[in-house]
């Protein structure tokens, strides 16, 4: 219990946490620029033990694409105000959020077909270019929708988020403290309805911990 409280309270009281997030994202960007886009999957694999413990924190804290989406989101909110995050309805979101897993399966199939020489180099390269175009467009979409690429189009995030199915320490909501203000729902970049859950078990959580930091009642914490 003590350790749980210690992690949670450190997160909550740290005024510099967004600075730390930015530093980690800049490290992620440096790795991405230096080693190329395939490095993402290796960094995800390297951070897997941490991910099994607390979820895919790479997505929430280190991914450079997350950084660009955060910046786009700040600009989008400034210009759109309350109209930000209104482009996609809940109904569409609930379906579209599975699209990134379709992309992941498509990429795995492409790799296998390429290895067995069913696909030629040019087709494989065209598919890779298409995936880059989807990623760039979805990051631009983040001017209108929070973390649009993470929510709907990132195959790497889809892969990383599979650990949510087995992660050891979930985010728990203490119902006796919660006053159902809904702030946690509003700040969640993945549009998860935290305020209705006993524990966040959603497959799309990116372990950004913004919900914990925003809760005015201290009702959310990382479980022991
Ligand atoms: S922000 Fe905290 S108090 Fe408000 S609904 Fe979420 S868990 Fe409950
Ligand atoms: S549930 Fe909390 S930790 Fe997970 S993505 Fe939403 S805000 Fe981040």
Features:
3 strands, 3-stranded antiparallel beta sheet, mainly alpha, binds iron/sulfur cluster, 13 helices, about 220 residues, globular
Report on this model:
This protein has helices at 2-13, 17-35, 39-46, 48-54, 57-62, 64-80, 90-96, 99-115, 121-141, 148-153, 155-161, 183-187, 210-214; strands spanning 171-173, 199-200, 220-222. A 3-stranded antiparallel sheet has the order 2-1-3. The chain is mostly helical. The N and C termini lie close together (6 Å). The relative contact order is 0.16. The chain has one domain. Helix 2 (17-35) packs across helix 6 (64-80) and helix 8 crosses helix 11 (155-161). It is globular and about 60 Å long. It has 13 helices and 3 strands; from the N terminus they run H-H-H-H-H-H-H-H-H-H-H-E-H-E-H-E. Residues 60, 171, 187-190, 192, 194, 200, 205-211 line the site of one iron/sulfur cluster (SF4).
